[in-house]
Structures are given as structure tokens and as C-alpha cells.
Amino acid sequence: MDTLTWVVVVVAVMLGIAWYLSYSAARLDRLHTRVEGSLSALDAQLVRRAEATLELANSGAVDPASALILAGAASESLEAHNERALEDDLLEGQRFGAREDLESGLTSALQAALTPEVVAQIRQADGLPTAALRRVEAAAVRVQLARRFHNDAVTDVQRVRRKRVVWWFRLAGHADLPHTVEFDDDLPPALRE
Amino acid sequence: MRVGIVCPYSFDVPGGVQYHVRDLAEHLLGLGHHACVLAPADDETPLPDYVESVGRAVPVRYNGSVARLSFGPVTAARVGRWLERGEFDVLHLHEPVTPSIALLALWSAEGPVVATFHTSNLRSRAMQAAYPLLRPSLEKINGRIAVSEDARRTVTTHLGGDAVVIPNGVNVARFEDAPPAERWRGTRDAPTIAFLGRIDEPRKGLPVLAAAMPAVLAEHPGARILVAGPGDIEAARERLDPAVAAATEFLGMVSDDEKAALLSSVDVYVAPHTGGESFGIVLVEAMSAGAPVVASDLPAFVRVLDGGRCGAMFANEQAADLAHQLNTLLSSPAERRRLSAAGSRRARVFDWSVVAEDVIAVYDTVTHGLNSASDSTSLDTSGLRPGQAGQPGETRWTRLLRGRRTGQY
Asked: Is the ipTM of this complex over 0.90?
């Protein structure tokens, strides 16, 4: 082969490699964007759940002791969210700001307070408490969805980040490796009747 | 909300996924959302006005059965144009790993994507071989839905990650209110048994029912089988035992109203499916219509029938067991009434009003992620409505050349 052919072949190979690298970087970028989006969705649904719980606690539909437990757990969750609201990068810290325990706490508070009898009682009487209960339920369902979708996205990022080409060429840049968010988000069984 | 729904299977022939897509679209429209369906269909096939045809489908053997699919560069371009025209807030794909338009839509999708997995036998050799190619596309899915626990397990094992289970929906009222038809109603001496499904598809179980019938006819000589479903009737009749053939009426393909009337009229509905069913929507339809159900003990059916409390079950592919169950039910009107009542109650769990609510919750979750993500992290997408295709005049190729960075989520 003459020199020209060699040059053409080398240029073609270089172009191929360049395209592949840029394609991989774009793919990773898309995945990181997806993770940030899903985490912020989870964050928003958690806020909604906590706010609805506060509303329910203050609606007079549950006994004062349960109301206090619900309000306590909900306000702790809201505080944790507000402390972190100023940070731009929700992924910073990687551990969801150690909020898992607080959210699990709110879940178990809801489970403890919303027994089948209480739920039946609230549902019978129309008005503010029924609406608040519906909002708690809707938010809790969306928390489950959002967490599952987020963890799916995280799994995808982690898998692509393990690829050698990503490591060698540092395609991930300075982006932190996201971690899955694990906490108990089960609905109180009585709500799912 | 503007929802674009993509169905990979042709609307020419009825099927579970097609019905699911149609009902979902109608429910979304009923709730005031904008819904638009893209599906393969022949020019002659009458389509509701919210369905757009992507062109003809070709019968192809894939994943163990013949499916009518649509693919190729012309189809891909049509799908791309439909996406750009639609300006959807969320794109809802069904069966995205089937080699048809849902996969093509995923390939060119730019906004939030929800995917519903219907099948419980996902793994095929083709998919294993093409997996590295599919991977980057599948990563675009923001929310995965599985219609049953079996479908979810398939997703978890073969694709990794997880999926939320939202069961198939049924318009319970449509079946509950269907007036029974005299010609299909059974009498004490001539009870009627209904079978629904493609008659030349062995997985739907007509051979199992045919093998069980001699024993049933021995105890209930007047029993009639009503077989409703597309397929070659003459060939199917020839495969039957002469006595069974005499007791069998082939109704061919029936309309939705006829199906509801059939299920409201008969004494027993039989689902002898031998496999490949991930949900069993027809069981829910039969229960809504008040028909006592006898079904094979596929895991999906066991779950729909609430562990056998809402219908009789027989060991899969065991004709003798099926005959025994049928004889027991046909001899006991009280048991039939009990199963009918239990089935009607159970069916409400699967009503579309409940199911659509759950699907909309998924849409809310994935679109929320999109909005706030572009608020907080917009780099070069400022000024663009998220989920849209980028600057006007842009094509998929210009985006591909730029490495698909802008306008992306």
C-alpha cells in the first residue's frame, strides 16, 4: 500500500475512535442527567409526602398522640430537605444527605398511625381529612415510583461507568459516582385496600 | 399532558397489547389528557381517530410465535416524524424490546420515556445477540412498568434494574353490563363452555380443552363448546375428535360486544393456556362478565384468580384434571354462582379507573424529573421547552452529529 492509502486508513480509524469516544461521553452525560432528574423528582415527592402528612396531622382526624408522631416525623423530613435546598448539586455527598433514616422514620410513623380503623374512619367522614389522606396516599405512591426509577437510573450509570473506555479516557469527568437510595417506602397496608 | 403511545403490534388483528393500548388511550382522553397512538395497520383496517398508522405490518416469527410487526428505514423515518410532530410531554412505549416501532421510537426518543413490558418470556436468542446494541437505547427509559410479577421478574433478570407492577386494566362495566345472548346461554341439559383465543396457536390451549372434552361429554352429553377467535376453522375442526367436533361451535373472530355477550351468557369460561401468558386479561374480562372461570395453573393466572379463590384451577396441560374441574362445575350451580360472585369482586381491582390512575402517577414522576432537571442543570438547553426536539429545522442527523447533547432531557 502506498502512503496515501495508509494516511486514509489511519485518519479513518482516528475518526472512528473519536466518534466512539464522543458518543460514549454523550451517552454517559445523558445518563447522569437522568440520575439528577430522577433524584430531584424523588426529592420533590418526599417533600409532598411530608407536607401532606403535616396537613393530615393538623386536620384533627387522628388522635393527638398519633398527630404528634406524624408531625414530628414529617417536620424532620422537611427540615432535612430545607437544609440541603441551597446546594446546587443534589448528588453531592452521595448518600442522599443521610436522609434515608428520616424518610424510613416517616414511613413507619405513617404505618403506625394509619391503622385500618383510622383509615376507615377518615374515609367515612368527608372533608379536609379525607383530602389530606388522599394526598398522603398519592405522594407515597409517587415516592415509591420515584425511588425505583432513580435506582434504575443509578444502576445504569454505574454499569456504564465500569466500562474500561470510560475509565481510561476519564469520560465521566468530575461527576461523582451516584449511589442508590435505600429506605423503607412501603405504604401503610390499610391505604392499599 | 400530551402522551404519545406506541404499540409495536399491528391493529389488524386483535391482541392483548393492542387492547391495552386502545383502552389506555381512551381513558387518558376521557380524563382530559391528549393521547395519540402510533401502531402498524393496513390501509383498510378501520382505526379510531386517535390512532395513526405507521404503515403495513409484516408477519414475522419472533420469540416463539408469529407476530405482525413493522420495521425498516422507511418506518423508522415515519416514527421519527411522528415524534417530532407530536411534541409529547411523555412517550409511552409498549414492548420496547420487540423488533418493531416501539424500539424505533425509543431509538429516536429525546424526552421522558415510560415503557411497559407485557411479556414474561423476553429472552430470545436474537435479543441476546443484539443486546449490546439495544443497551444504550434501553438506558433512555425513565420509568419501567411491568404488567405482572412475571413480567417484572423477566425485566429484572434480563435487563437488570427494576420495574413497577401495574396490572392490565379492564373496562369492568363494559362486561358487567353486557346483555347475555340467548343463543349462547346454557340450559341445565346443554350447558355452554366458552373458549377465547387464536385457534391455531397451541399455547392458547385449544388442544388441551379438546382432549378433556370426551370425558366432559360423557357426563354432560348436551354440553356445547363455543370457540371464539381467529384462525383456520376447517383445519381446527379436522383436528378434533368427531364427537367433540359435533359439540363445538366455531364463532370465528368476534367483536368486542359479542365477546362481552358471550362471556355474560356462558356457564363456564375455560382458559387452558399452556404458557407464554404473563397476565391473563381475558380472565379478568370473564370475571367482570360474571362467568365462572376454569384456568390452567400458570403463575400469572394463579395471581389473577387470587390463588384460586376466585376461579377453579387445573394442572397445566393435564386434560384429565381439566375434565374433572369442568364436570364438577357443570354439575354444581351453587359453586358456579359462588365463583361468579367472587370473580366479580376480584375484577374491580383491575378496573381501568384504578389502573389509569397508577399509570398517570408514573407519568407525573418521570415528567417531574425532567422539569426540575432542566431547571437546575440546564447547560445549553436554556430557552428550550424540555422534551422537545431542539431548534427548529433540526433533524435526527444533525443531533447525531453533535453527539445528541442538546435538547436531551
From this structure: no
